[in-house]
Amino acid sequence: MRLSTFIVPVASILSLACAQVHLIRNALDEIKTKVDATKHAFNTHNGKSIKSSLNALDKSISEATVVVSNSNSLSTREAISLRSSFAGLQASIDNAFPVVKSVEPVLDSLDLSGAIKDSIVKQRLAVGTLGNFVVAKMPVFIRGAANGFVVTLDRSYLGVIEVYSERC
Question: Distance between CA atoms of 71 and 13, rounded to whole angstroms?
Fold first, then answer.
């Protein structure tokens, strides 16, 4: 057996694995970008801007779910390499959600709170689905930490939903 007969398939597999992690990272980074845009939209108090940003965020979550669900299980190294994307996403959410909460009275006066609450409830479910797919792709011994990230995201969403539920 020639060495090239062995090396070419291995190189192809490694290339595919790197591409897979790159796709997942890009999908998570796109969600982060949309979260940042959503924060900006809420700061404007413009209903059309807010709805548009929430729709764009929904789309990025849906697209990321497809990317992750179509991916193979991740190796330990691949899973760990995604940590910075998860941390960046969580930081964006931690910065955006206080703004989303704080402008609720203004949005309520514009009669938008109910629609925004409904959108955020749907988003919470979609993020939960994405999170479950991500956790399932992780090596078993990393799943607990990955699930902790999903639980933290869920709590963040519940905090926003609670604020928007007070008047609806």
Answer: 13
Report CA Rg, the chain.
19
Buried b (16+ CB within 10 A) or exposed e, 12-34: eeeeebeebbeebbebbbbbbbb
Helix (H, G, I), strand (E, B) or coil at 168: coil
pLDDT higher than threshold 70 for residue 94: yes
> Which of 46-50's residues contact partners 24+ apart within 8 Å by CB, and which partners?
47/107, 47/110, 47/112, 50/107, 50/112, 50/116
Nearest by Cα to 74 from 32, 24, 30: 24
18: helix, coil or strand?
Answer: helix
8 pLDDT band (50/70/90 cuts)? Answer: very low
Phi/psi of residue 28, each to 5°? -65, -40
pLDDT of residue 41: 98
**pLDDT exceeding 90 applies to what percent of the chain?**
83
**C-alpha triplet 56, 155, 112: angle, nearest 5°:** 45
Q: What angle do CA 66, 130, 47 make, to 5 degrees?
A: 95
